[in-house]
Design goal:
- Its EC number is 2.7.1.148.
- Keywords: ATP-binding, Isoprene biosynthesis, Kinase, Nucleotide-binding, Transferase.
- Residues 66-128 form the GHMP kinase N-terminal domain.
- There is one protein chain.
- The chain has 2 domains: 2-141, Ribosomal Protein S5, domain 2 (2-Layer Sandwich); 151-274, Alpha-Beta Plaits (2-Layer Sandwich), CATH 3.30.70.
- By secondary structure, the protein is of the alpha+beta class.
- The chain contains 8 helices and 11 strands.
- The radius of gyration is 18 Å and the shape is globular.
- The protein is 27% helix and 29% strand.
- The chain binds 4-diphosphocytidyl-2-C-methyl-D-erythritol 2-phosphate (SUD) and adenosine-5'-diphosphate.
- 4-diphosphocytidyl-2-C-methyl-D-erythritol 2-phosphate binds next to strand 3 and helix 4.
C-alpha cells in the first residue's frame, strides 16, 4: 500500500513562444503547486483496477483512458488496485489528470520498486514532468524543460472554476500569435507576495485571450475575483480555472466566501501556493 498527493498545478505565467513541427507549442511558464489536490492510493493486486471516488469524481473516465491507468501501464505494472480520490475539477487548466498521473508514478515506484519512466511521464502529457517534480519550476520546451526558480514567498490564493470544461487543443489552435516573447532570463527574486504579483502583472498567460473567446464564463470568473481587489487575478493553463493572489490567508478566505456566495454553483477554494505542497 502506498499513497501520493496530486496537487493542483497553477501556471502563474504561460508564455507561448513558438511551435514545433509536430504542432506542439513551446512554452515559458512559471509553475507552482497548491495545497489542495487529488489523492492516489495503490495496493498490490492480481489485476490492474481503478476506483474513482471523491466530490469531483463525476465525469472522470474510469476506463483505460484515465491517466492513472495510463501511468500504471507506462511503468509496466499489471497488478495494482488503485483508488483516485478526486477533488479537482477535470479539464480545468490545473493539471488534475497530469498530477494524478505523476502521483501514480510516484506511488507505484514506492510500492513496486520500479523506476519512473526515463521521460518522466512526458509521453502521458506535457504537464506530467512538472507534476512529478511537484515544486515551483520554470517550465520550458513543450513541458520537458524544468528549471528551479528563486525562492517564491508562500502565496495566499483563491481558485475559481466557473464549471465549463475547456478543450486544451482548441485553445492552442485559436492562438492569434505563436511567437510571443519569453519571460526575462534569469527570473528576478521576490521578497513578498506584492512584489511577485507586481512583476506577474507585466507577464502573461497567452492562452487567456483564446479561452475567453471560447468560454465566456472565464471572463465572469476573472471579474468576480477582481471585484475582491486581489493582488492579481489570472487564468491558469488553458482554463477555465482562474486564480487570485492575496496579501494574507484571511483576505483569500474572505474573497473565496464572497465569490462562493455570489456563485454557489462554481467551484471555489481558498488555498496556498507554496514551494513544496
Ligand atoms: C496548457 C498546459 C500548461 O501547463 O496546461 P493545462 O491547461 O492542460 O492544465 C499544458 O501545456 C498542457 O499539458 P497537458 O494537458 O499535459 O497536454 P497534453 O495532453 O500533452 O496535450 C494536449 C494537447 O494540448 C496541445 N499542447 C499541449 C502542450 C504543448 N506544449 N503544446 C500544445 O500544443 C496539443 O494540441 C495537445 O494535443
Ligand atoms: N485522472 C484524471 N482526472 C481528470 N481527467 C482525466 C483523468 N484522466 C484522464 N482525464 C481526461 O483528461 C482530460 C484533461 O483533464 P485534466 O488533466 O484535468 O485537465 P487540464 O489538462 O486542463 O489541466 C479530461 O478531459 C479528462 O477526460
Amino acid at each position: 500500500m502506498a499513497e501520493a498527493f496530486a496537487p493542483a498545478k497553477i501556471n502563474l505565467t504561460l508564455h507561448v513562444t513558438g511551435q514545433r513541427p509536430d504542432g506542439y507549442h513551446l512554452l515559458d511558464s512559471l509553475v507552482v503547486f497548491a495545497g489542495i489536490g487529488d489523492r492516489i492510493a495503490v495496493a498490490p493486486a492480481d489485476d490492474l483496477t481503478l476506483t474513482v471516488t471523491g466530490p469531483m469524481a463525476a465525469g472522470v473516465p474510469t476506463d483505460g483512458s484515465n491517466l492513472v491507468l495510463r501511468a500504471a501501464r507506462a511503468m509496466g505494472v499489471t497488478g495494482a488496485a488503485i483508488t483516485l480520490e478526486k477533488h479537482l475539477p477535470a479539464a480545468a487548466g490545473i493539471g488534475g489528470g497530469s498530477s494524478d498521473a505523476a502521483a501514480t508514478l510516484r506511488a507505484l515506484a514506492g510500492m513496486t520498486g520500479r523506476e519512473v519512466p526515463p521521460d518522466r511521464g512526458l509521453s502521458l502529457g506535457a504537464d506530467v514532468p512538472v507534476c512529478l517534480a511537484a515544486r515551483s519550476c520554470r517550465m520550458r520546451g513543450v513541458g520537458e524543460g524544468l528549471e528551479p526558480v528563486p525562492d517564491l514567498p508562500p502565496l495566499a490564493a483563491v481558485l475559481v472554476n466557473p464549471g465549463c470544461a475547456v478543450s486544451t487543443p482548441a485553445v492552442f489552435r485559436a492562438l492569434a500569435a505563436r511567437d510571443n516573447p519569453p519571460m526575462p532570463d534569469p527570473l528576478p527574486s521576490f521578497d513578498s507576495p506584492r512584489t511577485l504579483a507586481g512583476w506577474l502583472a507585466d507577464q502573461r498567460n497567452d492562452l487567456e485571450a483564446p479561452a475567453l473567446a471560447a468560454a465566456p464564463p472565464v471572463a465572469e470568473a476573472l471579474a468576480a475575483l477582481r471585484a475582491q481587489s486581489p493582488l492579481l487575478a489570472r487564468m491558469s493553463g488553458s482554463g477555465a480555472t482562474c486564480f487570485s493572489l492575496h496579501e494574507s490567508s484571511a483576505s483569500a478566505e474572505a474573497c473565496a466566501r464572497a465569490v462562493s456566495a455570489a456563485h454557489p454553483d462554481w467551484w471555489v477554494r481558498a488555498t496556498t501556493f507554496a514551494r513544496t505542497p
